[in-house]
Structure of 3',5'-cyclic AMP phosphodiesterase CpdA:
Amino acid sequence: MQKLLFVSDPHITIDGETIIGLDPAERLKAILEAAITAHADAEALVLLGDLTHHGAPAEYARLQSVLAGVPIPIIPMMGNHDRRQAFIELFPETPLADGFVQQVRDFGQTRLITLDSLDGPPYRDGHHAGRLCPTRLEFLETALATRGDKYAIVCVHHPPFATGITGMDSIRLAEGSAFLDLLASYGKLHLICGHIHRTMSGSTRGVPWSMFKSPCHQGLLAFDDPNSHLSSNEPGAYGLALLSGDGVVIHSEDVGLTGRQVFGGYAVADHP
């Protein structure tokens, strides 16, 4: 069975800069080592956006050094913390579609479609919601219409629906309703999003979806707080998709749990 690895929201900073006391580059290194050691046979690694924290060239250069040893193809995406031109200059080999960082890749009987939901340029101060303009929606529709019998995995950084987490729902995908209608009209697909920094799953308008934790800082289950920057230092995680051609099985694996031991097939967390 073919596999795809997913890492969401690494938020790489320059050397010496941390997020809530965590070094995003070191956390990403640990996640990648665990994921690739366990799944060296994966077809590709999908980075679900917010590759850097500020979209600065020096941050993309640091990301480049972290990814240098990854032995499988890497499929990057844009999030609201990214800056498209700075990324393209450091990763010029990345495929583009109409100037956007998005592409279509087929893995056997599964079609992977990655979308660019970064709103800008221009980049408005404090604006973190996502956008899929008519050009990007047309790219998606063409990719779905031409897949034949293939199952589709569609990836976009910004969720197109409300999650109940108030702060993050205020900066979700602006064209969420049209996007969901398009996905639902085609069916036979699974949607994977980033942005929320939590492991979540559900179904909206008949469209099944999944999300993963960040390698670095995690979001809170805060239903009544409008702050979209609430974070915790829980262990990070990577996602794993098992491709069958007629569907997908999604797993999430935490990395960095302390005191974890395995006894007779049971994993036990040893809390002092």
